[in-house]
Specification:
This protein is an alpha/beta fold and 303 residues long. The chain is built from 10 helices and 13 strands. Helix 1 crosses helix 8, helix 8 runs antiparallel to helix 9 and helix 9 packs across helix 10. The chain starts with 15 loop residues before the first strand and ends with a helix. It binds adenosine-5'-diphosphate. Adenosine-5'-diphosphate binds next to helix 8 and helix 9.
Length: 303
């Protein structure tokens, strides 16, 4: 019996297009959360480039994929910084719009000494894309091998992007994150080839009508389920976990790359589990995203 070869991505890797949310993450650390009307002092203030879409774009670029984003930032200092951060990673920002008189998307995150967090998200420029805005940029979608979507962009824009890709035969991967508060429209799900959820999102969606669903299971790994009931599960990689922020984003990007490269379900899950696990070994969101060589070393057992 021959053992299965270690999963690898081809060179060049598949082309990934994202309709991406792009956020400035402002993180303050405090001893406790303030009660209503109370003022507390923070230990520290840090700023990070974030947003699920931008994180996934950077993760895919670090795996060696050509990546293009459709997205918006505000005409503020944060917007220029976020734009530059994506360009520094080699992400094609030709379809990134700077929206006048609009703040960039911002997440205000308070973390207390117990590690619990409170998050307030200001959509800002991320609320700008509508169906027509996406249709005007359809060429970036049809030039890709896979369209990677999340639910931090307006649903009408997500739906328009999925429709364009579906019509053009471009694979559509929808990461239904953050957990939807309304049922996803049937017209959207009909255009989705692979739906990716974590366990919280799976609960929020209930019974899912999709061709194939990948569910992430934290440290336990992930599961792939086809509409006909066929199922594959791959255990997670045991790592020394420091911070799970962006593990789901790393997983999503790696799954998009390996699935679009034609990997079978078990190999695609293995590749994505390894990428997600490595993102847990370092603090932060984009700062923790691994490069292809690190992922393939972990898969080969040579890290
Ligand atoms: P999310 O970050 O979206 O909540 P999960 O917690 O399920 O999603 O994590 C996504 C993936 O990252 C998992 O499927 C797994 O591959 C990897 N992962 C997450 N936590 C760990 C961990 N503690 N150890 C190893 N891998 C992990």
């Amino acid at each position: 019996m021959t053992s299965k070869p270690t999963p690898r991505l081809p060179d060049p890797a598949p082309r990934i297009c994202l309709l991406a949310s792009i956020n400035l993450d402002l993180v303050v650390r405090t001893e406790t959360f303030p009660s209503p009307g109370e003022t507390v002092h923070a230990h520290s203030l840090q700023r990070y480039a974030g947003g699920k879409g931008a994180n996934q774009a950077v993760a895919a670029a670090r795996l060696g994929a050509p990546v293009a984003v459709l997205g918006c930032v505000g005409d503020d200092e944060a917007g220029s910084w976020l734009h530059q951060a994506l360009q520094n990673e080699g992400v094609d920002c030709s379809d990134l719009e700077i929206v006048p008189d609009c703040p960039s998307g911002t997440a205000l995150i308070t973390v207390d000494d117990r590690g619990d967090n409170h998050i307030v998200v200001v959509a800002g420029a991320n609320a700008h894309p509508c169906a027509e805005w996406v249709q005007q940029r359809g060429a970036a979608i049809t030039a890709a091998d896979v369209l990677l979507l999340q639910l931090e962009s307006p649903l009408a824009a997500v739906q328009a992007a999925a429709h364009i890709a579906h019509q053009a035969g471009v694979r559509v991967l929808l990461n239904a994150a953050p957990a939807p508060t309304v049922a996803l429209p049937a017209e959207l799900l009909a255009c989705v080839d692979l739906l990716l959820v974590n366990q919280v999102e799976a609960m929020a969606l209930g019974k899912i009508e999709a061709q194939r669903v990948v569910t992430t299971l934290g440290a336990q790994g992930s599961r792939w389920t086809e509409a006909d009931g066929a199922q594959w599960t791959r255990a997670g990689y045991p790592v020394s976990c420091v911070d799970t922020t962006a593990a789901g984003d790393a997983f999503a990007a790696a799954l998009a790359c390996s699935w679009a490269a034609g990997a079978d379900p078990e190999s695609a899950l293995a590749y994505a589990n390894a990428t997600g696990a490595l993102a847990c070994t370092r603090p932060g969101a984009q700062a923790s995203l691994p490069y292809r060589e690190q992922v393939e070393n972990l898969l080969r057992g040579t890290d």
